[in-house]
Amino acid sequence: MSLSFDRIKEKLNILADAAKYDVSCSSSGSVRKNTTQSLGDSSGMGICHSYTEDGRCVSLLKILLTNHCIFDCAYCVTRKSNDVQRAAFKIQEVVDLTINFYRRNYIEGLFLSSGIFKSPDYTMERLVAVAKKLRLEENFNGYIHLKSIPGASDELMREAGLYADRLSVNIEVPTISGLKLLAPDKKHEDFTKPMLKVKNEIIQYKSEKKIIKSTPKYAPAGQSTQMIVGATGESDKDIMYSATHYYKNYNMKRVYYSGYVPVAEDSRLPAIGTQVPMLRENRLYQTDWLLRFYGFGVRELLNNDHPNLDMDVDPKLGWALRNMEYFPVDINKADKSVLARVPGLGMKSVHKIISARKFRKLNWEHLKKIGVALNRAKYFIVCDSSKWEHRDMEGTKIKGLILQNSTGKFRKEYSSQLQLFS
Amino acid sequence: MNATKTLIYDGSFNGFLTAVFVAFEEKILVSDIQKNVVAQSGLFSETQTIFTQIDKAKRVWNGIHKKSHSAIKDIYFAFLSENNGVELLLYRFICKMFAGTTSIATDYSDGIVLKISQLARSVGREKHRMEAFVRFQLTKDEIYFANIEPDFDVLPLISKHFRSRYADQQWLIYDVKRKYGIYFDLDQVEIISLDLNEIHTNSLNKSAHFEDEEYNYQDLWNNYFRSTNIKSRINLKLHTQHVPKRYWKYLSEKKAV
Ligand code: SF4
């Protein structure tokens, strides 16, 4: 017994190490209730059971089934030409690890990806087999996230969604030209085909469920994708336009952005030791947030005149400084959608302002209590007070003042993708 | 007749609610409400011992419930904080609620309301942390066992979560500080009091009570945890912000660090 534990430990080290560059760790958004006195429940919010030393949430057992791969994508540690130790789990080994970790309350579930061995279908079949075993033999209701292998057949993708909560294909390279350069074995369609299949199945299962209650769930937590940032010289505009495309055309739940961590010497890529662009990664997440929740259009934030995000200020402030004609906004009158565009106002503050101003006109004191970041907001608003800070200042002047009064603030944001706006 | 009194109750939430009921009914001028284990007789006030009565407790509970949904949760959570003097604070809060015609539960400009909502929030945070940081170890008699030592008395709050998640295994979560635990026997959750003399945190010392495989799985988990780090992104400050050091003792992945 302990002999095989040693072997499993070795595999786990190799296959967890190779999987860690996939940043998505979300385990929420599913609706798998434990109704049969069996194991697991993923109906609530995902729980972080621990945090890595770089501050990322650990909620899933995130591993590759194998790091053998027939392809040679330049940005990937697992690529064929890289000289690393290889290993492969047996299907049952992954099932046992997941169940035993889950029972001890280490994890919310499994995130299984894989290098491509033999063929995309051969690989996808094994990923599906793990999920199927967990669901049908172990009655496991925890969270399962499967990677859709680029090039996998529609038939397998359909089956995958019956057992997985979430499916994802990582686009990795945001531009088609970049893809040709770095992943010559892969075609753009290899990524989009499984995405499209999953999207259509989700729509179909949902509409069938409306008619026939017993229709099984299909990937209830939807699909997501990830893009590498800073590997191919792409602009922020390239990245966010392509993210917008995936949100819109494939109903993505989330797009993740991952600062490229150099893993090999390759003339096409940044050298080993190049700093991971974490601030840029954070700016992209902030932009993503503005697009999804704050009513911004991608063209307002990024366009030919302005193809890259500011590094010194967050994208909302950057937009406001370029569009001073929209300001000042009257806190006591402006619509929700207008308030949402004021730097320093998060959606929470916007809602509080709207409900509080029903009772009384709000002044600076009130706004402070509500928790508005006045050091930024004050240049863009008027309230129930004769004092206001705008005084026809220019964008650059305001920017200077704000930066002056928030030293160190942005340092803090370097690695935290969650605290998006204060 | 208007001399102030200290009410002594058994420490349970129902006991506390009974005390509130009695105070209202007998129009007592309450100077304090104390648990019988910690009670110190006040120099200048009489004491009255309260005997817990579920039906009286229920009437208070329902009364609060009718006034405000969120208040009832805040009151229960704040009670579990075991904060010094929390009973009197809650009593004043309940008096205010019953005196007013509108709900005061969200008037944060009131000191008592603010304090209670802060306590409730701390207890809520501790509840989430325990749901995340409990680490079961499998004993030889097939029970998944975990020790916790929470700042607040959160066992009653986490029971439901574990009940619905681990419905097909026996488990026991034991509060080392308060010397009681909740035990699920595959059928229902029971409160049990034990005096464990061995504290089985995930320590480096192995114990004969656990399955041999148990240590293999802990070892695997530690290894897993270590291989998830990306060295070029390390940020220990953020790390300890998420997992404060006082919780490390539960986490087998932190013991080797
Ligand atoms: S196919 Fe996937 S695992 Fe293989 S080299 Fe490309 S990205 Fe890496």
Features:
heterodimer; A: 422 residues; alpha/beta; TIM Barrel; six-stranded parallel β-sheet; two-stranded antiparallel ribbon; 16 helices; 10 strands; 9% strand; globular; disordered C terminus; B: 257 residues; 2 domains; five-stranded mixed β-sheet; three-stranded parallel β-sheet; 8 strands; 16% strand; binds iron/sulfur cluster; DNA metabolism protein (chain B); DNA_repair_put (chain B); DUF4130 (chain B)
Structure summarized in a few sentences:
The complex is a heterodimer of chains A (422) and B (257). Helices cover 40% and strands 9% of the residues of chain A.
Task: Give the arrangement of secondary structure elements.
The complex is a heterodimer of chains A (422) and B (257).
Chain A: H1 2-17, E1 50-51, E2 57-58, E3 60-64, H2 91-103, E4 109-113, H3 120-136, E5 143-147, H4 154-163, E6 166-168, H5 176-182, H6 188-211, E7 223-229, H7 236-250, E8 254-259, H8 278-293, H9 298-301, H10 315-322, E9 329-330, H11 336-339, H12 347-356, H13 364-370, H14 374-377, E10 381-382, H15 395-404, H16 409-412
Parallel strand pairs in A: 3-4, 4-5, 5-6, 6-7, 7-8, 9-10
Antiparallel strand pairs in A: 1-2
Helix pairs in contact in A: 2-3, 3-4, 4-6, 7-8, 10-15
Chain B: E1 4-9, H1 13-25, E2 29-35, E3 46-49, H2 54-67, H3 69-80, H4 86-99, H5 111-133, E4 137-138, E5 143-148, H6 155-165, E6 170-175, E7 180-184, E8 189-192, H7 212-227, H8 236-242, H9 252-255
Parallel strand pairs in B: 1-2, 1-3, 5-6
Antiparallel strand pairs in B: 4-5, 6-7, 7-8
Helix pairs in contact in B: 1-2, 2-3, 3-5, 5-6
The structure holds iron/sulfur cluster (SF4).
